[in-house]
Amino acid sequence: MRFILFLFFTTSFLLNAQNNYPQDYFVNPLEVPLILSGTFAELRSNHFHSGLDIKTQQRTGLKVKASANGYVSRIKVSHYGYGKVLYITHPNGYTTVYAHLKKFAPDIEAYIKKHQYEKETYQIELFPSAEVLPIEQNSLIAYSGNSGGSGGPHLHYEIRDKEERPINPMLFGIDIKDSTNPIIKSIYVYPLDNNSFINKANKKQKLHLIPLKNGDYTIKNIEAYGNIGFGIETIDRQDMSANSNGVYNIQTFLNGRRNFELDFRKFSFNETKHINQLIDYAHYTTNKKRIQKLFKKNTPLSLYKSVIKDGYISIEDSTYSVYKIRVSDYKRNESWVTINIKGSKKSISEPQKSQTTPYYIKTNKDTNLKEGNVSVDLYKDTFYDDFYMNFEVKNDTLTLHKNVVAAKKKFKITYDVSSYTNEDKSKLCIARLIGYKKRPVYASTKREKNLLVTRTKALGTFTLATDTIKPTITPVNFKSKQWLSKYRYLKIKIEDDFSGVSKYRATVNGKWILMEYDYKTKTLTHDFNDGIITDTKNNLKVIVTDNVGNNSTFEALFYRK
Question: What integer is the mean pLDDT of 490-518?
Fold first, then answer.
């Protein structure tokens, strides 16, 4: 059976995986061997990873080269997300993206700093025309870093098409050494309605995974009846890397016929939000492990291929079925799981009783929930499925179900704070209560007269919180009245204990200076090489404001010549 399936897969793979992407156009953007800490389309929090994360030998400052001729079409600098990122558009219509950079090449750095000083802002986004910053293949464009939301030094590298859809760079001949089969960590089986049962239970079950000597896996035989589906927790590892990365392709076969496929070769950004419906979201929020469902339900993803009956498996009485899962990486290393299923009505037992509440949420309707001083607006198509929601307000604490139901889009929570004094309400914000100890975490809050509003995609428990503590501002590498003639950088640490830093402004002798903010180290840094500070005696003033509006001011005197 395995040999027949292998021949079938090989034939279909060759027919369906025609690679029409240019193979010798883009080159390695780094001068070190390509070793990955993250693969294309692997599962991340609330999104699919849109590129390759290339290791930079655990350091920053490696030269980043242009993968092909083109021009810089977009530059963005932000505190979060991609941090410092560069986009190069190429004559063949594709765009390469280089993110989490430390700094740009000198001509690009000068171009963006000019605009930062003109607009007096560190965070900026620019779209140069084709003649402003032309680029040749292998020319220096930047230095690798750890800016933005990066969890460690690396280069995030993407290739996008004309519609801004990210595509797996390996399809363009970006070669990564990989001789290791994917690893299957766990298999789950789901009853897909109240009349379906596995091993006499109408509930999700973790199956006993048995590794085989040839590297494949089997499962202890199961009995089932009705419509069932499977889920898989799987990772891949490339050579010279211990990172748990994403796989390239998952296919399933029922009695030799392919009935489901996930193909991670490209996607569009407007569909990446549906990752929480692809995975078992409740399992992830509870256990922090991502199970990919091998069946689909109300999930509009282009990653699905060759799906028959949405991947559902219908098991009838007195039947025997063989279900196989094939997981592969880009280099066609593969692992198989074989599951033998006996169809038996004897597996039927009492179905699980569904929990009901007075609040039944229908996906095709707008819903407003209101109690006391709190209201919740759930818009049409906020969720994927209809469900009974827990909704309760006690004092200022809102219980809005548990965060086990995936949302397509944000909903609105509104608190009426008109009963508070003006002084108190100015320091109020909405917080989400996290973890066993219900620790309050600031939720982005907007004020609309006597209303506080937050928009979120996460269910859970919310409350009003008070933030009366001002941010702190501390000099890092200097003291007031110090001579700094030999210093290259001026560094200041800014911290806020609850709502977080909202904005900051630094001036010297009344003139705005550029200070780069790294939220991970809570540090503001000014480069004296900007040439803005030319006086001998300098009065530094830094104002920092948190998200509730508390602000602090720091002033110091320093000298340079």
Answer: 97
